[in-house]
Amino acid sequence: MNTTPSRMDRRTALKWMLAAAASTALASRYAHGQGPAPAAQGYGTDPDLLKHYKPGDVWPLTFTDTQRRTAAALCDVIIPADDRSPAASAVGVVDFLDEWISAPYPVQVADRGIVLPGLAWIDTESSRRFGRAFAELDATQQAAICDDICHAATAKPEFREAARFFATYRDLTAGGFYTTPQGRQDLRYVGNMPLATFDGPPPEVLRKAGLL
Amino acid sequence: MALITPDKLKSSYDVIVVGSGAGGGQTAYTLTLEGIKVLMLEAGRNYVPETETPMFETPDQAPLRGAGTPDKPFGFHDSTIDGGWTVPGEPYTSANNERGRKFEWWRARMLGGRTNHWGRYSFRNGQYDFKPRTRDGLGFDWPMDYADLAPYYDKVEMLIGVYGENDGLENTPDSPPGALLPAPKPRVGDLLFRKHAGRLGIPVVAAHRAVLTKRLDAGNLPAKLHPGNPTAQRLVREAMEGRAACYWATDCVRGCAIRATYQSTTVHLPPAMASGNLDLVTNAMVREVTTAPDGKASGVTFIDKITGREHRATGRVIVLAASSGETVRLMLNSKSARFPQGLANSSGLVGKYLMDTVGANFSGQIPALEDLPPHNEDGAGGAHVYAPWWQYQEQLAGKLGFARGYHIEIDGGRRLPTMRTTSGLEWVTGGSYGRKFKEDARRYYGSFLSFSGRGDMIPNEDSFCELDPAVKDKWGIPVLRFHWKWSEHEIRQAAHMQQTFADIVSAMGGKMQQPPEKDGTKAIANGGVIIHEVGGAIMGTDPAKSVTNQWSQTWDVPNLFLTDGAPFCSNADKNPTLTIMAQAWRAADHIVAELKKHNL
């Protein structure tokens, strides 16, 4: 919406230039690539609560193809497919992330200022270490980067800011994923349906919790 | 009579009720079923829970997965319309914005007001709560006893439907047989709470909430509620027959399309409307209560928010039930030669002794709740158990360092996943991602319990509201400026909550992200945040020291009544809504009797 393709191309170019300068301070890498804050309106104080909304219905989205590719790759590193549920990107989480960082509300605007530079950083870092964008790395290479930034409390000083991005991104990805039907099913959430009676926890639950 | 536009107003009404929430709804219900002609004015829009409530919509169907925003602070599917901590075009101000000094004001602009989204906790105040000054020398006694309000608690419980049990606990009154509905079975986290808190001497019993765990006894209750009034009995029976029992799904804050919970819109207003004695105007922002030359209230002026035009309505009795803050604001804005400080304010106390509930939270991760077999924990859309205050005697003996108690509310379990469910897990997962994160999410889902303290606040001189000298809303009506200060009693109470909750989490074998906050000033929520604002026009026995008498009738203006939380002169730890309704019913009975005697 506020980001034209040509603008992004310039930003991408800048990103690769920065990648070459490995000594560049992290903070300065965060200073670019954020994009302007959304100017769109929110849904107001009296929205239709029965309508089912999709990302892009209320405010325009942001991600360029490049950002989208990186976002999807990182989502799926965080929530890959396994035998119980699909990967995050397969159930619309990338669209959700785009909706989130494009929203005109304070929390989301702040997250935009973390996520967009974070996605740029992770591509820069991928390029620095392995010469390719994050989405093009193999699983071991992706893990090498993510292992450095996945735990803010123990991250090395040079990765602390990236770790804050990762924590935000993981929360958003997980929230986006576990609120889908597939995510709810993965957690074995079995409610949100009318019941004739509420019978309380079954014996196997009480037993497991040490109450029987 | 029905939902009307301002051009259809009758020339005069017996009673004008400003506000349609718990107080206004109960007042209009009682009056109209006694044949009194009532005009109700609501500042928000009409609201129809039966067709507007998102009962089974899931977060993925909402923008931002339903997360709260300034437009919908408690989440997209919360029932609140045109409200929250801010209302566009209707500001309020705080004299001091520091933590602990700021007051935050939740409003709703919709028919039924805040009753559409409230937590449905319905506790009776006990005898100590009516006579706190007699008991510990602090605050103010109510100008009545528990026994005076008890019959009205009985009636309100029977009318709205409250689940709970009688536990015979101190200052936690039992209800008469047949007044309460069966309590829902505890969830597994509730049982753990009961077991481990019990070992610490904290009783965990059935919560009392206004949710129908079975259908109301429409055959018998109406005669108990309205003896000798067959018309009222018929209307109430029909209204009760129109309410379904809870089907054990969806959070009550969304409102309830099947009328299984109490909302003014689904319980009080349907029989009042069906009586033919109620005219209702929505989008009516009342500016002022007008007075006649004899000093009595004569009516109100209001702005039709749709057209922007000002209208006038006339009535023999004026009832303000607009929320404590809005009721006070209206009184202060109703100035005249006779009442230069605002209506019914010869005492100078209108706006004074504003109270909220003391609030502090603490949560823990409970290993015993990890990896539980899948089972449905939705239940009654809110809490099934709680812990009433348990240290009355130790407190009275001065052993605790603060004068008033709190109850404990519990939340958690395997609820409908939201953005929060899997957020902020790093402190338990060590930063996992990938397949390990998915395993962790399954393991920890439903294993967090959070405890909220809800405590008594003693009224004080530093917590009040007044008209802001400069700021006006978009209709040019002066707005409120709030002043707030907690006393040491509340601050120490909040620290005590923290320690107690940490002790409970420890007793359960739980993990804590951080230690309990020992500094009560950091633990305590800002004034107003618990959304239990009461006081501001306190009742009493002395016209120089109070604004109303025990009937919520203002001393200065005998035909002006306040039936929301404004006349509360103490704020027990018990959530105020049930007491607002019981007192509104009692005040309305008084209005009926006084109208019959031509005293108003």
What does this structure look like?
The complex is a heterodimer of chains A (212) and B (600). Chain A is globular, with a radius of gyration of 20 Å. Chain A is an all-alpha fold. Chain A contains 9 helices and no strands. Chain A has helices at 5-20, 26-31, 65-78, 93-102, 106-130, 139-149, 160-178, 181-186, 203-208. In chain A, helix 3 (65-78) packs across helix 4 and helix 4 (93-102) packs across helix 7 (160-178). Chain B is 26% helix and 16% strand. Chain B has helices spanning 22-33, 49-52, 127-130, 132-136, 146-160, 188-199, 221-225, 230-241, 264-274, 324-333, 392-396, 426-429, 435-444, 488-507, 520-523, 577-596; strands spanning 13-18, 38-41, 93-94, 162-163, 180-181, 205-206, 278-281, 284-291, 297-304, 310-320, 354-355, 358-365, 385-387, 406-412, 448-455, 464-472, 478-483, 534-535, 560-562. In chain B, the strands form 5 sheets. In chain B, strands 1, 2, 7, 8, 9, 10 and 19 form a 7-stranded mixed sheet that branches. In chain B, strands 6-13-14-15-12 form a 5-stranded antiparallel sheet, with helices on one face. In chain B, helix 5 (146-160) packs across helix 16 and helix 8 (230-241) crosses helix 9 (264-274). The longest helix of chain B is centred in the C-terminal third of the chain and has 20 residues, at 488-507. Chain B is globular, with a radius of gyration of 23 Å. The two termini of chain B are 24 Å apart. At the A-B interface, helix 4, helix 5, helix 7, helix 8 and helix 9 of A face helix 6 and helix 13 of B.
